[in-house]
């Protein structure tokens, strides 16, 4: 699997959202926008059921680790989820597949990872970025680190076990850490 990047520019984040909606539809834009705000692995993001959301909190068991994730939803995420729920009141999944032939004749299923990967790759190619499903999670981690410079906090959000993994994951190099030490004088 190809390594993907965190998106380190706010305008590019917005452009990706715009292009996903224009080229692939509102649902793919929602996957991007909500995925950025939840920092979940794609398998967990796509598996979210409306029943996993109570008020302003999402509770799910992560597939990879088996850990229970409790995430408080920010205003932007709550608004998008409310809009999806209003548009598709009978859906079971937040990102339910509704385009495939025969979707009405079988039990509800979420979008596939493959469909999301294809949409993200399409936009990534246009922007000449290594964009993939992990880009959302990496981007969230990167921007939290830029805001707080607290690696432990980023590790907890991503539920990582190692600082080295988190630094590599969010695209922070030793050179950038060295620069932080040079620039901050107390």
TrEMBL record:
Record InterPro entries: DNA_brk_join_enz, Integrase-like_cat_sf, Integrase_catalytic, Tyrosine_recombinase_XerCD
Keywords: DNA integration, DNA recombination
Source organism superkingdom: Bacteria
Domain Tyr recombinase: start-end pairs: 2-182
Pfam families xref list: Phage_integrase (PF00589)
Entry-linked Gene3D superfamilies: Intergrase catalytic core
Record has Nucleotide-binding as a keyword: no
Record carries keyword Manganese: no
Transmembrane segments annotated in the record for this chain: none
Protein name: Tyrosine-type recombinase/integrase
Organism: Shewanella jiangmenensis
